[in-house]
Amino acid sequence: LVRSIDTIDWSFTGLGPRAAWPTVLEQTLSLVLSAGVLVILKDTTERVRVEQRLEIAQQAGGVGTFEWFPESGELHVSQEYRKVWGLDPDIRVTDDLLISLLHPDDRAVSGPERLGQSNPLDYAEYRRIDPKTGNTRWIARRGQVISSERSGRRRFVGIAFDITDRKQAEVTLQKSEERWRGLFEQMHEGFFTAEVVRDAEGKVIDFVFIDINPAFERQTGLIAAQTIGQPVRDAIPGVQDELIATYGEIVDTGQARQFEVYIPALGNRWYEAHARKVGPERFAVLFLDITIRKAAEKRVLESEERFRTLSQSMPNHVWTARSDGSLDWFNDQVFSYSGMSLDQLAGNGWAAMVHPDDIDVAAQEWTEARAAARQYQVEFRLRRHDGAYRWHIARAVPIKADGGGVAHWIGTNTDIHDQKEAEAALENSAARLEARVEERTAQLLEMQNALQQSQKMETIGKLTGGVAHDFNNLLQVISGNLNLLAKDVAGNERAERRVNNALAGVVRGGKLASQLLAFGRRQPLAPKVVHLGRLLTNMDDLLRRSIGEAIEIETIVSGGLWNTSID
């Protein structure tokens, strides 16, 4: 026995590897063996390995196993089964517990509800409701009956696995299919699938309509019921061989194609088609009737031809630009003026013509006009082929597309150099005229001031004359009384001196009155010969009294002055 213990691989037994045994276990086992006790050791290595592989498979596949005993309602379940159902490791699992977690509408497919059937655990799907969060998980179950021959009782074994992701994918797919079918039925574009027909050599010679949408009838005028299952040569007599060959090439190469096709048999209609391979011998086509668009394009081409013919006859520069602002066409006048080619001017090359001082303003205005889809207008100098710059005014208008955006721009450059020079000359003339007006205005103001001063002096003279006249009358009274008083004080030297002084003041007052009358033009002019030196010297007393004693007056008279005839 001791030798048998040594030879057994204990790693696959319930005791585990011998190296991991505790000392007490090894000693106990030795005592049992030495006491002669018969020990039967059964090699369960293969069973353990199978159980381990089964557990790994359950974990990898997300599949839980169970054994159900209907009489007791108890279930023996694997750890993965608990994980699928969201059960705690230590909870006792019964059929009542599981039924309580099912959605009420799904309890009819549970095992206890089907015990009367031959196999209550046929495949079923049901929803498990989390009592805490209310979240729903889908679980699939499948099992079979195992009967006991001795007792006659039945027990069941089976598996359970989470199919929530699959269910969600199915719901998503169903919604997607519903949306696709709705789109298929409501789309404005025509759509059909077809299967090619080949001859004995494998060449595609025809195709049969398999499925078409309602818009197919509107786009082609063909009736769906009469078209499905029919070869295209029967449904559309006279259809071009080139069209059938194109679809055959798509099936043979697997490469999708987009093209425009003209079909006279369908009322001279144009179609835009998108075709691709969808099966070994099948293809699908999405198409749209573009007959109106093609007619419009033809009219546009004719209109553009007329526009270019007219542009070439104009003396102005004419150009066009794409919606992004890059110039793409110029009339011959632009080439003649600039000496540049289309390759040099196209795109943003036109900027090379603009004067360096004007390019920033021109480019900024062009950018803002394109952003706002409004008219463009700017003045700048353009370089001629000989290097001279001339002023031009550039104007451009946006041509709107059917969708509301800008399709392209049409612009002109008009030479305004002579106008600019005339404006400059007019501006210079205006400046000179303004200077002369200012000069004349200053003269008029000066004359007006002189007139106002003259009027003021005339007013003062009138006032002075009146005052002098009245003052002279007073002096006459004072003079008369002083002469009479002189007679009365004759012989009184002191009194005579005072009277003489008063008479002298009267004389000086008379002179002052005479001067005031002369200033006021009230006294007639009486020129006489005077000596200016003596006249000015005699005015010292008058000036000193007028300006006060704070200012000293000194009169210097040059010798040899001539006499002067003056009033």
Outline the structure in words.
The chain is an alpha+beta fold and 567 residues long. The protein has six domains: 2-43, no CATH class; 46-169, Beta-Lactamase (2-Layer Sandwich); 187-289, PAS domain (Beta-Lactamase); 307-415, 2-Layer Sandwich (Beta-Lactamase); 418-514; 525-567, no CATH class. It is 46% helix and 23% strand. The protein has 18 helices and 17 strands. It has helices at 2-7, 23-34, 45-61, 79-85, 95-101, 164-186, 214-220, 224-227, 232-235, 241-253, 291-313, 332-338, 342-345, 359-372, 417-488, 493-519, 532-538, 540-547; strands spanning 63-69, 74-77, 124-129, 136-147, 154-162, 190-198, 204-212, 257-263, 269-277, 282-289, 317-322, 327-330, 376-383, 389-400, 406-415, 528-531, 563-566. A five-stranded antiparallel β-sheet has the order 2-1-5-4-3. Helix 15 (417-488) runs antiparallel to helix 16 (493-519). The longest helix is centred in the last third of the chain and has 72 residues, at 417-488. It is elongated. The protein starts with a helix and ends with a strand.
